[in-house]
Design goal:
The complex is a heterotrimer. In chain A, strands 1, 2, 3, 4, 5, 6, 7, 8, 9 and 10 form a ten-stranded mixed beta sheet that branches. By secondary structure, chain A is an alpha/beta fold. The longest helix of chain A has 50 residues. In chain B, helix 2 packs across helix 3 and helix 3 packs across helix 4. Helices cover 37% and strands 26% of the residues of chain B. Chain B is an alpha/beta fold. Chain C has a single domain, classed as MetI-like fold (Orthogonal Bundle). The chains are: A alpha/beta, B alpha/beta, C mainly alpha. The interface between A and C is large, with 78 and 67 residues.
Chain lengths: 459, 234, 508
């Protein structure tokens, strides 16, 4: 066996990592087949390299040195593995190119048959091409277990928190995650309800307390070990129970632009209509289609109790419009068509950080704000429970929770996370006490009352 | 031998019934069909062409029984009141259309099409598109298209109705000379007695699906049928 | 052979629409009671939904007819532009339209309420009556109008006794379609309505599915919507009959005004209305987008643009692949009565809310998310289900105008079915095919629900970009991407409009 040195091993490692990345993008089946081997080998090779570094003795090894043999062993395995991996990828590429040319040939022959009015060859070719396309479609089926997470759309897509979690979870655990997005968490939950026990979802992420509490008795959620909840802030542990794992939270409020509107220093929720009476307009979300809209409605009824109806009656003439969702309302606010919008106290952090705009601020009420907590639930029908628990731990991990604020523009659920300075500049308000039993029993009536109150002609 | 022989033809279309005993045409003969609206003239043509199923009877063309064949295989060409040319093709290509389908080579198609355009006196229109020619010219092209394939039987459904009188006269003479010279048979449906008189050798008059007269044209000329007077006036 | 052509569409719709809907209903409905009819609130919503749709449809058709007359009969300056781009307006995502109206008219006056709703519905729906009535005007028989005028009948008399008869089925058909679309608009009604006073059944449906998870109620509302849709479709089919209308070789514009001042007045009025309804909101979208172009990530945008084009092209071709042979067989081999019965299959997806259709597919076929290729197929298949009813209207109009005599002549000369298709059918169906493909393409470009539900990670379309950016505070990027979508649609519609014009001029 010829002697080797660490740089050769490092080069070989880099080569294998490059092949791994390439196969992940283009040859998923191959990647999934070889990944476990790669992980095992990688850890062994890493161990050898680390031991050399620990003694701080990187020197040319001689044949007589026993460690150099082990090291040479490692290099030989690496080179062999890299060569095999490379050959497999070349084979896959060849299949791909042949498949492409075959498809083109099939298409050309089908067209020629079509124009020459030859029916039988045309049918045969169409069937054959269907088989080719069908087999190609199946070629990329992922053989590794995939963790499937149903969530709302803001958590998916490029530069989303979901994308970040996917990448980091894959690196750490070698497991792919698939975020399946729906318009809202409610739709995601409804999908699970409709799919029944055969649902492929493992985790439902982004569900709020209102939804959770309504459905926790249906028996679809799995209990989670208490130790998972340890890192969570004490203030959130009350919301958490064995099924619902909070991962972020925010406080509802009104957001305004200081450059256009002056807000009195002392203002309470019930005084908002009076403030708006000076010709200002507010844009809200519809509680019938938006979770933030529903939570704002719940807040007003919980906070103001019997005075809620009066509040809404006096607010009605100043409502510019009611948006189906958060984004439409916020867009109107940014376009200066409304002076206030219902959003989160942390919304201004986005403008501060990304746009360097400091004039957008939240209104703070002394009596407190509604705390919206978003959480994850593990589904009892999941076939990947242990992986799902790892994912939940990963979301609650320090790294993910540190990144969370600048993705979600919400507060992280984990205790002791250093927030960005733009978040630290925002006061953390008191949270309003919510009687959930009353909320669950009265919610529908409140929505009806709201609808009837706002349906009357404000003039 | 009769080139065209139609016997005991019965066609039921809802509450309308067409019933014919016997029609026989020799090569070069033209049968004119007249009758009031709704008498079954177009139904007769559509049944012979194969677009309307027959309930009973036999249709023989050149000794071949065609009543059970699809329209593509009957070798019967059609000309309607409107030309119905293929608009994305030139005049020459329209005429050559049927020839190509019959297996003629490209050069032969062009030669035969050119000849027919000459017979129709529109040889200078060969490269024009269908929308670039007048209605009368288009109708000549339609006729050339139907005749160029030299099928034993041609069906003409009021082909001259949309033309003016001088053009009609021209077309009548042309049609008669072409059919006589070529040996085809034709069934000609019309409302104008002058068309029928000049073009046809025999005349069939239909009323409510039933023949009321079937005579040679010369006989009908000397002894006009009251229905013909009613349709065409004096 | 014709049966082979007939069945793919049937199989496609049964597998990807009827079966999933039935599956969803069987899973979702637990108790069927008449509770929705005892709900006073829902009855109010029902009344408002159809009252709003009635007014919107009537105004849209009146406006569409006015535009069609001025463009096709008076040949006003700029009419071709309006003709070409009207469909672009109907293909934009409705939230963009709502924001455009608010960004333009909203700054001048209080558009919330009836004004906003009618403006929004007209913006999105005028293209349908404009196109259908405009095509009917182009293809109508004119010699009888000429004859009538020569006998002394006034232009109004000619219109009342002759022209109206030729175009009335298009007028009523377009009214029915516009009514259907107006009754199911969500964003336009909610956003521009200004509050729950303006609530339609679609909102109630969203409420049931998204927040209450009350699938029984959602199913009952869907069935109610479908019932109304079915009744309208019944009348729509009654209006469809074969027409013996062909393009005249000599084009004569009966209603072309002789006096220049009348033409000028018409032109002015047309453009005032067009600016108010279309141009102003479009300008707002453009002016909001241009200053924010710097926020775009161009490489990501290019990928989204490419994906959008690919998906939309595949959707259109797939839809035509299924729809065209089906309609061809109906036209060729079935009587009018029988053909109408089969048309229910094609029209049925139109009766249901897109949210319900997507939910049904998502629940019935959750395994599509297992592979990237299957996900793409799911997106295309879902969009095809939505797009087939939209695309079938112009295609069907085209088939009704086909002359059977030309087909008979081709058959008598020995042409087989393919040759008859190429020579006797396709050249005359080109205009309908263009319009159908255009409508399908535009609809697909603006579609987001299917991409949201089925897309594998990383796939992005322009519409999805807009929605995701808006949900993450990136409003500037959303506005800029909207502008890009608008420009992309503009080019697509320009190109097809150019091809359409070329085809029209060659056929005359």
């Amino acid at each position: 066996m010829k002697p080797a040195n660490p740089s050769e091993l490092k080069q070989c490692q880099a080569r294998v990592e490059g092949l791994q990345e390439k196969s992940q993008e283009q040859h998923l089946t191959l990647w999934s087949k070889l990944n476990p081997t790669l992980n095992t080998w990688n850890e062994t090779a890493q161990g050898y390299l680390q031991s050399f570094e620990m003694v701080d003795k990187i020197e040319k090894s001689s044949e007589g040195n026993p460690e150099s043999f082990l090291y040479s062993n490692s290099l030989e395995s690496c080179l062999k593995f890299a060569d095999e991996y490379s050959a497999e990828i070349k084979k896959q590429e060849l299949y791909g190119i042949s498949g492409f040319f075959l498809s083109v040939l099939v298409l050309v022959v089908s067209l020629v048959s079509l124009f020459r009015r030859k029916r039988t060859p045309l049918m045969l070719w169409l069937i054959f091409s269907g088989v080719v396309v069908g087999s190609k479609a199946n070629a990329n089926v992922n053989l590794t277990p995939v963790l499937r997470i149903y969530t709302y759309d803001a958590l998916t897509g490029k530069n989303s928190f979901g994308e970040y979690l996917s990448e980091t979870f894959l690196k750490k655990y070698g497991v792919k995650t698939q975020f399946v997005s729906f318009g809202t968490a409610g739709e995601a939950l409804n999908q699970i309800v409709l799919e029944g026990e055969k649902t492929k979802a493992d985790i439902l992420m982004g569900i709020d307390e209102v939804l959770f509490r309504r459905f926790q008795t249906k028996g679809r959620f799995e209990k989670i070990d208490a130790s998972i909840f340890d890192p969570i802030e004490s203030g959130l542990k009350k919301q958490a129970n064995s099924f619902f794992v909070p991962f972020d939270y925010g406080y509802l409020s009104f957001v305004f632009d200081e450059s256009r509107s002056k807000i009195p220093k002392k203002l309470s929720l019930k005084e908002i209509p009076q403030y708006l009476a000076s010709g200002k307009k507010v844009v809200l979300q519809d509680p019938r289609t938006s979770s933030i809209g529903l939570e704002f409605l719940v807040w007003t009824f919980e906070e103001l109790q019997g005075g809620a109806k009066t509040f809404w009656q006096s607010l009605a003439p100043h409502i510019l419009t009611v948006s189906p969702g958060w984004s439409g309302a916020y867009e109107l606010f940014l376009r200066k068509q409304a002076d206030l919008v219902v959003s989160y106290t942390t919304s201004p952090a986005y403008h501060h950080l990304r746009e360097k705009k400091l004039s957008i601020k939240p209104i703070f009420f002394d009596e407190g704000h509604f705390k919206q907590v978003e959480g994850m639930v593990l589904l009892s029908s999941s076939k990947n429970k242990s992986t799902a628990v790892n994912f939940i731990k990963h979301v609650l991990g320090a790294e993910a929770q540190t990144q969370l604020p600048t993705f979600q523009w919400m507060y992280p659920a984990r205790a002791g996370i250093q927030l960005p300075s733009e978040f630290r500049a925002i006061l953390i308000p008191k949270s309003v006490e919510v009687n959930w039993d009353r909320v669950l029993s009265q919610k529908d009536q409140w929505v009806r009352d709201w609808t009837l109150l706002l349906s009357q002609d404000p003039k | 031998m009769n080139q065209v022989l139609i016997e005991n033809l019965k066609v039921n279309r809802g509450c309308f019934k067409l019933s014919l005993d016997r029609i026989a045409l020799n090569p070069g003969e033209v049968l004119g069909v007249m009758g009031p609206s709704g008498s079954g003239k177009s139904t007769l043509l559509q049944a012979v062409a194969g677009f309307v199923p027959i309930d009973a009877g036999s249709i023989k063309v050149s000794g071949r029984e065609v009543s059970q064949l699809s329209p593509e295989k009957r070798k019967i060409s059609l000309v309607f009141q409107r030309p119905w040319l293929f608009e994305n093709q030139s005049v020459l290509q329209n005429v050559a259309f049927g020839l190509q389908l019959q297996g003629y080579g490209k050069k032969e198609c062009q030669k035969i099409s050119g000849e027919w355009l000459e017979k129709m006196e529109i040889s200078d229109l060969g490269s024009r598109r269908a929308w670039e020619i007048s209605g009368g010219q288009a109708q000549r092209v339609a006729l050339a298209r139907a005749l160029a394939v030299q099928f034993p039987l041609i069906l003409l459904d009021e082909p001259f109705s949309a033309l003016d009188r001088p053009l009609k006269r021209e077309m009548r003479k042309l049609l008669k000379s072409v059919i006589q010279g070529s040996g085809f048979c034709a069934i000609f449906v019309g409302h104008d007695w002058r068309d029928i008189e000049e073009v046809s050798d025999q005349v069939l008059i239909l009323e409510e699906g039933t023949p009321v007269a079937f005579e040679r044209t010369c006989d009908l000329k000397t002894h006009p049928h009251p229905l013909v007077k009613a349709i065409c006036g004096d | 052979m014709s049966r082979l052509l007939f069945f793919p569409n049937l199989v496609f719709l049964v597998t990807l629409f009827f079966f999933p809907i039935a599956f969803l209903f069987s899973v979702g409905i637990h108790e069927f009671s008449n509770s929705i009819f005892q709900d006073a609130y829902l009855l109010y919503v029902l009344r408002f939904t159809y009252w709003q749709a009635l007014i919107s449809a009537s105004l849209s058709v009146l406006l569409g007819m006015f535009f069609a007359f001025l463009i096709k009969e008076w040949r006003v300056f700029g009419g071709a532009v309006l003709w070409r781009f009207s469909l672009l307006c109907s293909s934009l995502p409705s939230i963009i339209v709502a924001l455009g109206i608010l960004g333009s008219w909203g700054l001048q006056l209080n558009v919330f309420g009836w004004t906003g709703i009618l403006l929004g519905n007209m913006f999105m729906n005028v293209a349908i009556p404009l196109r259908l009535i405009g095509t009917a005007l182009t293809d109508r028989e004119r010699s009888s109008e000429l004859t009538a005028q020569s006998l002394g009948l006034s232009k109004f008399g000619v219109f009342r006794k002759i022209t109206w008869l030729a175009i009335r089925s298009s007028v009523f058909s377009s009214w029915i379609l516009t009514f259907l679309y107006s009754s199911t608009s969500l964003f336009i009604v909610m956003f521009l309505g200004g509050g729950p006073r303006f609530t339609n059944l679609e909102v109630a449906l969203y409420e049931a599915i998204k927040l209450n998870l009350d699938n029984s109620r959602a199913v009952q509302i869907s069935l109610l919507q479908a019932g109304v849709g079915a009744v309208l479709f019944f009348f729509y089919l009654k209006l469809q009959h074969r027409r013996k209308i062909q393009g005249e070789q000599l084009v004569f514009h009966t209603f072309f005004p002789k006096r220049a001042w009348v033409r000028g007045l018409g032109l002015g009025f047309l453009w005032c209305l067009a600016i108010a309804i279309f141009v102003f909101p479009l300008f707002s979208i453009i002016s909001e987008g241009v200053p924010n172009l710097a926020f775009l990530e161009w490489d990501e945008l290019w990928v989204s643009f490419r994906t959008t084009l690919v998906i939309s092209t595949l959707v259109v071709f797939t839809s035509l692949f299924f729809l065209y042979p089906y309609l061809h067989v109906l036209h060729q081999s079935k009587t009018d009565e029988e053909a109408r019965k089969w048309m229910w299959l094609v029209g049925a997806p139109q009766f249901f809310s897109p949210l319900v259709v997507c939910l049904a597919l998502s629940v019935c076929f959750p395994m599509v998310r297992d592979s990237t290729s299957l996900s793409y197929l799911a997106i295309i298949a879902t969009q095809v289900v939505f797009v087939i009813p939209v695309m079938h209207f112009p295609l069907r109009e085209g088939f009704l105008r086909l002359a059977k005599e030309r087909d008979w002549i081709a058959r008598s000369l020995g042409a087989n079915p393919w040759q008859r298709f190429f020579f006797a059918e396709l050249p005359f169906m080109r205009r309908s095919l263009f319009l159908s493909a255009l409508m399908g393409f535009g609809f697909s470009m603006g579609e987001v629900v299917s991409v949201l539900l089925f897309s594998p990670p990383g796939i992005k379309t322009l519409s999805l970009n807009i929605f995701q950016a808006m949900s993450r505070y990136r409003f500037q990027e959303a506005r800029a991407t909207t502008l890009v979508l608008l420009v992309a649609m503009f080019f697509v519609f320009s190109l097809v409009g150019f091809l359409e014009d070329k085809d029209e001029s060659s056929s005359h």
